Amino acid sequence: MSERRHFRYDPDMSVDDFLRRMGEVGALGAGRLARAAEVLERMWDSGATVLLTVAGPAVAGGLRDLFELLIREGLVDAVITSGANVVHDALEALGGVHVVKGRRNVDGYGRVYDVHVPMEAFERFERFMRGVLRDLPERVSGRELLWEMGRRLEDGFLRAAAEEGVPVYSPGLLDSMVGLHVWLYAQDHRLELDLVDDMHHLADLVFEADELGAIMLGGSVPKHFAMGAAMLRGGLDYAVQITMDRPETGSLSGAPLEEGKSWDKVREDAEVATVIGDYTVLFPLLVTGVLQRLGIGRC
Question: Average pLDDT, whole number, for the chain?
């Protein structure tokens, strides 16, 4: 037990300093954010195998370059995400833009709350996917498809993952524009998307890990895909999740990490932290401070 202190402002403080001041406050959201920084620091410093799980509109919300940085710096060993983030990463690499036009529909644009994407960007994406699919073997795993997409893109986290050999798993890939184009192509071509092979690959990655950690942005299928795989080895050793979902509904997205201990998805002695809030704000803050603390990267 420690005394709760008040936040002390310093005009020269770094983001790392700010997170440490949150630890001095120690209570409520401030305490949870500081605890998450400590767990993330130990996760990265330990050399654990790290899974980054991403649900929700992370790329549309501005986190694309940050994901690329983590992959390039070797801080992420696998990415598990929705098909939507894959699509939006490719859209930007193909010259598409995300613009902020407010909470209203605008002709010629698709809307993600207050972020808009010109529909013509999806036409370029369709042409791109036709070229990718034409060059694939008749049977391909999801991660191999995403690596092939990444190899053909100029930038983004898919490109970084392909170059660095970091697998990107998308267990819900069919529920996206990628899946739509796979289905359309398969109407008159032989193509089998083998998502079971992705599970084999992730299981091998998990079994080979001396220690296993996860950074979970949002919940949903990406979070559960990681936790289900972790169950094969008795659970995660480290975990940080940032979510706006509530636990009372019983959904996985709002479930505290401690609940995962009852399923052997999180080890009893695991270091875990849950932060309630918008990850498009909190994750950059958290990562910037911890990278400063560890002296890593350009932050």
Answer: 90
Report percent pLDDT > 70 for the chain: 97
Average pLDDT over residues 261-289: 93
Which residues have a catalytic role annotated? 265
Domain total in the chain:
1
Is residue 290 situated within a structural domain? Answer: no
CATH label of the domain that carries residue 179: 3.40.910.10
- Does the residue 109 lie in any domain? yes
Domain membership of residue 287 (yes or no) is no
Which residues span the domain enclosing 198? 49-280
Q: What is the pLDDT of residues 89-115, one digit of tens each?
A: 999 899 877 776 778 887 777 777 777
DSSP per-residue codes, the chain: ----------TT--HHHHHHHHHHH-SHHHHHHHHHHHHHHHHHHHT-EEEEEE-SSTTTTT-HHHHHHHHHTT--SEEEE-HHHHHHHHHHHTT---EE--SS--TTEEEETTEEEETHHHHHHHHHHHHHHHTS-SEEEHHHHHHHHHHTSSSSHHHHHHHHT--EE-TTTTSSHHHHHHHHHHTTS--EEEHHHHHHHHHHHHHT-SSEEEEEES-HHHHHHHHHHHGGGT-EEEEEEEE---GGG--GGG--GGGGGGGTSEEEEEEEEEEES-HHHHHHHHHHHHHHHHT-TT-
> Is the residue at 289 inside a domain?
no
Q: For the segment 69-95, what is each residue's pLDDT rounded down to a tens digit?
A: 999 999 999 999 998 999 999 998 998
